[in-house]
Amino acid sequence: MLHIVFEQSNVDALNKAIELDETLQGDIVEIKDDYAVGPLTDIYETEGCQARRDWWKNLLEFSPYMESLNIVDDKLAVHSLLKRLDEEPDTKVWIWMGQNVHDVCGYYWLMSQLKDYQGRIEVLYLNNLPFINEKGNIFYPTSLYEIQPKEFLKAKKLARPITPSEFEVDPDEWKKTCAENAMVRFLEGGKKISGKETGFYDKNILVNVTAAQQKLSKLISSTLHKMKVKTGDVFLVWRVRELAGEGKLEVNGDWAKGWKEITVSLPGGNATTANDLPETEE
Asked: Which candidate, 268, 242, 260, 2, places its Cα nearest to that of 122?
């Protein structure tokens, strides 16, 4: 068996579950790119892939993740996956996805390339399903890593083959999404994806900015903590840079020295940094 997930934290969570249940034994493949944001035009062609890589290179500049650009090669991951499926006709694939736009877009990107393996590709979609958290309370996870390892024993019962109908309809939906080429994608519910404007998450950033300067890292942490619909920190920092360029934010510090050197405030903010003030509860 091969497991497919769309985030490193999900790899870690699934590995812990595998330790508890030998029936889950199998290699885990991570699709690393976040197809919920960024350009998608001609995504399966060399030119489209390069355009997307260049876009990410711009966003990753000055970030602590710059080296990750060289290890994200989802095309190679799929090539290796297909090769293994050809060589091992009894091997099945389980695609795990939570109810979030990151996983669902990853699913669309991946399954559109697996039509020749119908009957061997199964999906486990945690779509509005209740689980028990560490405190014994019922909750509805949006990501795999939120589930306790022992709860994966229940989650595995969700596995079902991707139907021939889905192999017809879902790639068409993904083609529409790629043709729309919005910079941000939003999960409406189920597997329904809609495109949003590039500044879709700007309001989440701006509500956390104050007149006093605060460290960029604190601003991003606060923003991610309070967001109901999440995106990545790299995308949010890029939006901070863009908002500063539009005069909506004031940024101080040397970007070349990395995120840790940057402070952010509202235009005309004072020189006191929020990090120098007493901590307050969220």
From this structure: 2
DSSP class of residue 163 equals P
Distance CA 240, CA 246 (A): 10
- Residue that the structure tokens 């945690």 belong to: 126
Cα–Cα dist 217/228, whole Å: 19
* Dmax (CA) of the chain: 65
Closest by CA to 134, choosing from 149, 156, 155, 144, is: 149
Q: What is the pLDDT of residues 219-244, one digit of tens each?
A: 999 999 999 999 999 999 999 999 99
Q: Reading across the β-sheet that carries 263-265, which strands appear in turn?
A: 250-252, 263-265, 212-215, 270-273
The sign of the torsion formed by the CA atoms of 249, 252, 255, 258 equals negative
Q: What is the pTM of this model?
A: 0.90
Per-residue model confidence as pLDDT tens digits over 44-94:
999 999 999 999 999 999 999 988 777 789 999 999 999 999 999 999 999
- Taking the C-alpha atoms of residue 99 and residue 275, their distance in angstroms, rounded to an integer, is 35
Q: Spell out the residues 6+ positions from residue 79 whose beta carbon is closer than 8 angstroms to its own.
A: none
CB-based contacts of 71, cutoff 8 Å, min separation 6: 32
